[in-house]
Amino acid sequence: MMRGQRNVFGWGRVVLLTVVALAAAVVPLPRGVDLFRPDLVALTVLWFCLLSPRLLGLTYGWCAGLALDGFKGVLLGQHALTLTVIAYVACKFRLQVRAFPPWQQSVVVLCLLWLNEFLLFWIDGVAGHPVTDWRRWLSVPVGAALWPLVSGIYARFASRR
Amino acid sequence: MASHDPDPRPLLLGGPALGLRLIVLAGMAAGLMVADHREHHLSAIRDGIASLAYPIQVAVQAPVQAWAAMRESFARKSRVEAENVKLAADNLVLRLKLMRFDALEQENRRLRAVRESSSRVVQRSLVAEIVRVDLDPFRQRVLVNKGTRDGVFRGQAAIDAAGIFGQVTRAGPFSAEIILISDPEHAIPVAVNRTGARTIALGTGRSGMLSLPYLPQNADVIVGDLLVSSGLGGVYPPGYPVGKVTQVTRDPGQPLLAIEAEPLAGLDRDPEILLVWFDNAVVEPEPEPEAQPGPAPPAAVEAKPAEPRPVEASPAGRSPEAAPETPPAAEPPP
User: What is the CATH superfamily name and number for domain B187-263?
Assistant: First the structure.
């Protein structure tokens, strides 16, 4: 699956980006600001799925999600499931999405992040500890608004030798 | 945007393969969730991930810690001196109290031994530092830097200088996750200190508030009442302060009172907490109360956790793992 990709985006960079995204998920922020924390891991998974799905796809989403579960100390497997699902949708529609201008990509990302959060919300409810606070949805538009910036930074990072 | 994907192979990914992978991976994730939620069989995997994550979590909080340390080092000398004077005065008062208390404790122990009742006083404690990472803004949980290697176990009570803080929900090798008493999934059995009425204090999700929804309309509770842990359930040592009643709403249309209380422990301010061991079992008579504390574990402040037997009270439906295997060394020191 992965031949010919190594020189495009080294594994070291993949690991580095993943670790940074995971760290961003738990970095301490002032009270109030932390409600707006974008889900950088989900954005990273989406970026890889949209732009180089042969290198990293569903399996990457699954692994990153499992790592995120471990980091945040939540039910093991819930982020793994949700990130796999949005990675699947992103891989499926990546050709259309890649042709979009950035703001339309942001809209697609908004939908996918919403789906991610909805699945998490659902799993929380099934597992018996629902978080019904409306502010849990705040991170979704923030993540979508950051998408052009994040994808631009990742593209620069990827193209650097 | 796609300039770095110069793969000459066909653009369309194999449909069936993609769908199959989704099903397999989603099934694996669902299996993990069920195993983790229902059976708690995944402690090995979780410990592995927690051990890998811990260095990163510590690195993440390093800037915050450095900032705090810098502020500390630039603190005004006069303020430090004033603090020092105050601490010295406090120390003197506490020492005086302790002298009396030691004698009383010994007496209490002997009397309880005669009656063969359990003492359930805190016998050993361990200072744990809170790792400043945000686990989830909607859940009241913190991570501390002590784990099973230090003898921390699941269901262990955590207190601070002012009152009860929470209990350990997950103990990894190097770190442990603590659920605060203000977490919406947490409930602690309490007693109103003035009247002895027992009830349950639930967390609300806000660090400054507990709610007591199970007292009847005719219960004798007033604003300012101190709530102490009742010790029922066996997770928390009895008699430790939990909170102060801040509001009592008597609505005649409702069968129960709506009572709010403020936790006394500094749930969102504490830099460190105490994990405690206390004895639930019957205390043996002690022939030589002046025995030296034996080779206690490194950070142990007091000696001998005889056989901590944490019985789970809350969060509901979880059973704690075995007690820490600390050697039954010496008597509790005077």
Answer: Rod shape-determining protein MreC, domain 2 (2.40.10.350)
